[in-house]
Specification:
Layout lengths: L1 H23 L4 H15 L5 H13 L4 H39 L10 H25 L3 H16 L5 H17 L16 H25 L2 H15 L4 H12 L7 H13 L7 H42 L1 H30 L3 H15 L5 H15 L3
Helix pairs in contact: 1-4, 2-4, 2-5, 3-4, 3-12, 3-13, 4-12, 5-13, 5-14, 5-15, 6-7, 6-13, 7-13, 8-9, 8-12, 9-10, 9-12, 11-12, 14-15
Pfam families: Chromate_transp
Main location: membrane
GO molecular function: chromate transmembrane transporter activity
């Protein structure tokens, strides 16, 4: 009975914290990783720095919404399979509800250019800068790893394609193995993944099975709901690089086919920029436009299901691999490359879309100081950013 109560206590804790993050995490996937790092690693120490970096590296490598997968993975490690689901619900539900409401009631409302939205983008600059500085100190302590991070930064800035990140991570893994295969790593990450390999294998089988079978069933039945599920599931399965890269896939699936107009698609994209949480919840808006709130729910389940199956399917094997001495050198290279990728994403799109004038940079410096030096809670920094952005827009 005590163990059962303890389990429910852990799940409620995960739900409370992830929901708070879901209500305040503006700025896109890299900013989300910053919020996660601040809350889960620095404040609550649910994972050590190395385990978190390894989890981020895995999710950067897998297709799907990287920040959502990291959140699911943290929930799994903290509270098992149910913990991953609870963490996902808390982080995702606020933006799903907001976007469904936008679709049903506020469609066409121009919120993308609101001053408070710009202020929240500046908050993301401060949060990501803080996260990158903290992770870089741990993951790039020597000149070799600093060089790998620099090369990853240059490559991902100059060649901004969906597969550049995966290619950079693969190359960094090979270089890390060559450079650090004799490296004696005495740090024990101690990551426990409470999922069996049998269940993991089932999840991977289901992932590939749905990817193959759904298009066949779609063509055989011509049922609209199955066609929707297939389009969203396939988009969530095949995209690398986060939410911004899924937009062309979704547009190609639904606009040319006449399921919704280009204007409705772009209006929803503006709304998606205005809400916290993962950009993949844009699917909830599209589904709601096409088939009401039921369509929004179906779209959300379909586009995030691949992320669940991949995380549940790879984490147990990933933990075994990361403990293998012959793999540790490769992971050191991968983690260094992730720092470069994060810095690249920090510049574009976060910095380029947020710091548009000297006053923006000054405000970002104030928010950074509030977070790093004055140690104020993240929600206060977010609220200050929204109010400050609204005030700046008046001048």
């Amino acid at each position: 009975m005590k163990e059962n109560k303890s389990t429910w206590k852990v799940l409620l804790e995960i739900l409370f914290i992830s929901t708070r993050l879901g209500l305040t995490s503006f700025g896109g996937p890299v900013a989300h990783l910053g919020y996660f790092h601040t809350e889960y690693i620095r404040r609550r120490k649910w994972m050590d720095e190395k385990s978190y970096a390894d989890l981020v590296a895995l999710c950067q490598f897998l297709p799907g919404p990287a920040s959502s997968q990291v959140g699911i993975g943290i929930g799994v490690i903290r509270g098992g399979a149910l913990g991953g689901i609870v963490s996902f619900i808390g982080f995702t539900l606020p933006s799903v509800l907001a976007l469904v409401i936008f679709a049903l009631i506020l469609e066409g409302l121009d919120v993308a250019d609101a001053g408070w939205i710009h202020g929240l983008k500046i908050v993301a600059v401060a949060v990501v800068a803080h996260a990158i500085l903290g992770m870089a100190q741990k993951l790039t302590p020597d000149i070799k790893r600093k060089t790998l991070a620099l090369l990853a930064l240059v490559a991902t800035l100059l060649w901004q394609t969906a597969f550049t990140q995966v290619s950079v991570i693969l190359v960094a893994g090979v270089l890390g193995y060559i450079l650090y295969k004799e490296h004696a790593d005495t740090e024990d990450a101690g990551l426990r993944v409470p999922i069996s390999k049998k269940f993991a294998g089932f999840c991977l089988t289901l992932f590939f099975g749905l990817l193959i079978l759904l298009p066949i069933v779609r063509e055989a039945t011509q049922i609209e709901w199955i066609a929707m599920f297939d389009s969203f599931y396939r988009s969530g399965s095949l995209v690398f690089g986060g939410g911004h890269f899924v937009l062309p896939l979704l547009e190609r699936e639904f606009v040319p086919t006449g399921w919704l107009s280009e204007e409705a698609f772009l209006a929803g994209y503006g709304a998606a920029q205005a809400v916290p949480g993962p950009l993949f919840t844009f699917a909830a808006y599209l589904g709601a436009v096409m088939n009401g709130w039921q369509g929004g729910l179906l779209a959300t389940v379909a586009i995030f299901l691949p992320a669940f199956l991949l995380i549940y399917g790879t984490l147990p094997f990933w933990d075994a691999l990361r403990r293998n001495p012959s793999i540790k050198g490769a992971l050191m290279g991968v983690n260094a490359a992730v720092i470069g990728i994060l810095i690249s994403a920090f510049y574009h799109p976060i910095w380029t879309s947020s710091i548009l004038a000297p006053i923006d940079f000054a405000f970002a410096a104030v928010l950074f100081s509030m977070l790093v030096y004055w140690k104020l809670p993240p929600w206060i920094v977010v609220l200050t950013g929204a109010i400050g952005g609204a005030v700046i827009s008046l001048y």
